[in-house]
């Protein structure tokens, strides 16, 4: 009996030892698994924290940092930034069609003649892609008054002219031209060129509504904030190859127009608005637009553009004259 008891006791001890070893083995295995899981989780946490921190930092930077303005892009792109942007329904209904083509020009001189301060000079028109000629063709297929504007207003991209002492009027101005390509019904179709403020009525020609100026082809009249009366300004225009220009002097608010290279005189003065180049028609016609990407018919405007002065030589000459005037 005693022997039997000892055997039972010994068996229990062996069972306890085996159970203890088994538990130790399981604990070690589980600990290893848990450790691996913890290390893996810690790595994920570190990566996640780094990504979150980076995302938050970018958000904070974006909130503190001002977004790049239109001024930044205009200075970077120059006159290439300007485009006429018709209403989407005009495009979908084919009332207005715009073709922007870049034509590679070989062996074309980048110096053009400019009449500056009474003297004829050769000036260099600055263009990042001087061998690329940008042709902007606009076709109107309208049965009533239709107006389109540029995406940007007249804007001076040269910091040198943003000064407390403004250059005299004759030294710089904004300018653009249109060339008539086709106008089959010249006696009935009106083509208009001018300036208007943003969100101008798309169903009125420039000059026929408030805060706008226009030069109309039918009778050579100019219009400013009025209906269809206008003021006699020049002769009728609108024939194929007619070149009409619009200029604006920001220092005096003067607006003038040109016809086939001739300045027609000051049309209006003291008009200080944030002007957008604006054109329109009430019939079927097509025309080219020159914002300054190539030489103008009006020689005095060579080196100018919708972006102010784009000729570095002309810009330097303006600064020299300003410095001389300051000393006097």
Automatic annotation (TrEMBL):
Positions of transmembrane segments: 31-51
The protein's name in its UniProt record: SPRY-domain-containing protein
Organism of this sequence: Rhizophagus irregularis
InterPro entries registered for this protein in UniProt: B30.2/SPRY (IPR001870), B30.2/SPRY_sf (IPR043136), ConA-like_dom_sf (IPR013320), Gid1/RanBPM/SPLA_SPRY (IPR044736), SPRY_dom (IPR003877), Ubq-SigPath_Reg (IPR050618)
Entry annotated with the keyword Membrane: yes
Entry keyword Membrane: yes
Domain B30.2/SPRY: 94-296
Keyword terms, alphabetized: Membrane, Transmembrane, Transmembrane helix
